[in-house]
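As a warm-up, study this chain.
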Amino acid sequence: MVDHPRRRPDWLSVIQIAGVYLILGTTGAFVVEFAPHDVATTPAVREFAVPADSDAAEWVRYRDEAVALVLAEELAWFHIDPLVWERLVQNQRFVQNEGELNVGDQELFMRALAMGMHQDDPVVRRRMLSRLIQLLEAEVPDPTESEIVVYVHSNRGRFVTAEQRRFETLFQKVPRDQDGIDKRSPRPWFDSPPPLAHFGSQSELQRAWGKDLATAIFACSRGQWCGPVLSAYGVHWVKVTDIIAESEPSVDQSREWIAEKIKAERRERWVRQRLDQLASRLGLVPVRVGVGEDDAK
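Now compare it with the structure written out below.
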């Protein structure tokens, strides 16, 4: 038998299945519209197996995988996914007879489908669900202008850049007795290197230098030496050289970033809603199967 090459379609087609419009092509499939009203209100019942001891999260996963498998069957995803192809061919080679070692990959793949290996293999099931989730994530609509404005005002703290200060610091030698620290002003005889410049918000400086030093810097006037201040690194004198006031970018400056942020926050909820709708439209019904049993509970 001739070993046919794998199917790698170069065509484009539009397919509607269970209310999902898909464009299929060489780079995969893309959801372009969802129209549940186009689907029959009384779909055929499709059963899917769920282990009897599954918890709620596992039950949902089995159902989601069943949704993906139905769509994959209708859209021939098994034929165009290289990982699925390899997996099913390997599975079939494991069970084939010794006298059939010369059977080609195409024949083995078709046999695997005929035996329903693609329905039970956990790798194939996860792969098809992942493919469907990617399609549904791409379907999340762009937020409207009013939604962007409302989001910015409702989450102002996430977009505001806190006040930042640039400062220089001199280190003073720490005597054993802290009462011996010179508290008058920094002097050249402090035996310090040239002032070191640093920059950051109060929270950033607190993480880097400690609370006392950060508090002192933000209480210090520009151009004034303040100290002495203790930190984990020693005794400091600090001078604020620049103050950058708190700022909030306009919607126009951050529109694209904010829109993507909104879509990212919506994706999980959107995908969950779409999977639930698809399961309903496809008429999926669970059949609980006990461990080691074929009878539904």
